[in-house]
Amino acid sequence: MKNILTEIKNRQTVVLGTFFILLIACKSNNDPIDESVSYCNPLNLNYRFQVTEASYREGADPTVVWFKDRYYLFASMSGGYWHSKDLGKWSFIETDEIPTEDYAPTAIAIQDTMYFMASSEDFDFMTATGKPNAIYKAADPLSGKWQIATDSIDFGVWDPAFFMDDNQRLYFYWGCHPGIPIKGIEMDYKKNFSSIGDQVDLLRANLKEKGWEVYGEVNEDVNAYSWLEGAWVNKHEGKYYLQYSSPGTQFNSYNDAVYVAENPLGPYKLQNHNPFSYKPSGFIGGAGHGSTFTDEYGNYWHASTMAISVKHNFERRIGIWPAFFDKDGVFYTYTAYGDFPHEIPDFKMNGPEDFQPKWMLLSYNKPVEVSSSLSEYPKENAVNENVRTYWSADSGNADEWLMIDLEENSTVHALQVNFAEQNSTLLGRSDSIYQQYKIECSTDKQDWKLLVDKTRSKEDAPHDFIEFSAETKTRYIRITNYRVPDGNFAISGFRVFGFGKGNKPKPVDSFSVERNMDDKRQVMLKWPKQHDAVGYNIRYGVAPDKLYSNYQVFDIDSLTILSLNSTMEYYFAIDAFNESGITAGTVVLSTLK
Known about the structure:
The protein is an all-beta fold. It folds into 3 domains: 5-16 and 48-358, Tachylectin-2, Chain A; 361-499, Jelly Rolls; 512-590, Sandwich (Immunoglobulin-like), CATH 2.60.40. It has no helices and 43 strands.
C-alpha cells in the first residue's frame, strides 16, 4: 500500500444525517421532524471509493473512541475519519496528516490527547522485517491536525489495539495472520510508547474445536486456513475480555470471539459463549473485526465490519450493535434484526429487551415495477434482502425509476435506500460524488404525492436512511432518479419499514435439532413453516437462559449451522416474525455435547 493522499484537501464535510424533511405524506402533511435518534445498519457513511483498483467503496475494521464531547470513528482506507455526538449523525474529517491509507487503524484517548496508529504498510509480519509503526497525537482531532508522538515503536505490527487499565498502565495487542497468535505487551506511553517486558502469545486458532474459526461463507471450508486478527480488550468487574476476529473479512461468517482473563496479559481462557459478535445472515452479514466502547449512559456498543465483497473482497461496510454482560459476566453482542431500524437509547439498557426493532420490514419480495432493467440485474433484486445482488436500470438518466407495491395500504415509518455502483469508474473522493432522487407515494397508483425530496441534495449517502416524523399510509412507493455520481441507477435494497395490518405470527412450537456427531461443530434444525410468518430468527447458546447467538432467515424451514464449539452443549429456540411483529418461540431444545 502507498500513501496516495497528496491530492486531499484538509477540510471537514458533513456527510450523514439521520433525519430528513418529510414534505407530504400520502395521509399526513408537513409533520415536525421526530427528535429521537434512529439508525439502520449498515451505517450511512460516505464510504470512500478506493483509488488503486476497481471502483468500489470500502469502510472496515472500525475503532470508535469517545474523546472530550463526541465519538470518533476510524476505519481502514478511508482518507480521514468521522465524528458524532449521538451515534446517529456522523460528520467526516478529511486529512493527510495520519496514515489513513493503511489498514485497521486504532486510537486511544489518554488524558487530553488522542493517539492514533494504523497497521504498518512497510512491515512484513511473516519475516518481522521492515519499518515499525509510528504513533500520532492530536489535542483537537476535529481540526484534522496531528503530530508525530513517536516515529517508531519497538516492533512492527498489523491490526494494533490499545487498552488503558484502571491503574493507568497501557497495554498493546496485535495480530493478523492464520499462523501467528494474537499477542500482547505492556507499553510506557510516557517514554515514547516503549515496551515493558516481553511479548506474550495470548491465543491461537483451534479450528477443530471452534467452528466459527473455520474458513468460508458459512464456515464450511474445513481444509482451508483461517485468518486470526483484529484484537480488542475491554475490562468489566475486574476481568479482561480479549476479542479477536476470524475467519475472513469477505465472508458473512466474519465474527468476533472473546477470551477472558484475570490479568491484561493473561492467561486467557475461551468464554463458553462464542462467537461474541456474529451476524451471518440478513440483508447484510458480517460482524467481525471491530471495537467495543461505552456511551454516556454506560451502554456497551460493538462496531464492526460488514461484508458486501462483490466488486472486490474488501468491498465492506460498518455496523454497530449493543453489547451486554449478563449476571454471570458473559459478554455478548446482540445482532438479532441487526439491519432493521433501531432507536439509540437515552438510558441504561438492561438487555436485548430494551433494543428491539423500531419497525418491521414491509418490502420483502413485494411486486416491483421499473423503468428499465439490465437482464443480469433484475428488478426483484431490489427487494430480496440481499445486499450482494441488485437491480440496475439501463442507464443513469434522470427518468429511471423503481416502484414497490406493498399489496395493501400499509403504515410506513422509514425507508432505507441502498445504492449499487453499477458501471461506476469512480476512484477516491470528490465533491461530485452524491445522489439525487425523489420518492413519491400513492394509495391507488394514479394520484402520486411527494414523500421525500432529495433532488438538490449534495450528500453522499450510499445507504440513505430516512425516518418520517409521522406514519404514512400508502400502498405504492416509487423512487425516481435525478442524478447518480457515475454509472447506472442501481439499488441493492429499497427497504420499507413500518407495520402491517395483520397479527403477529403464531409461535414456532415444534422443531427438531440434530447434531452432526461426526463433526460437532455442525447442527441442523427443521421446523414447520408458519403460513403467517415472513421469516425466522434462530436463537441459540450454551444454556437455556443464554441464547445469545442469532441466525435470521426468510421463507425456509431448515437451517444448518456450522459455527458451534465442538465441546459445548447447545440450546435453541425459534422466533417467527412478519410485518406486524415478532413472536418468541415457546420451546427450547438442546443438542448432545
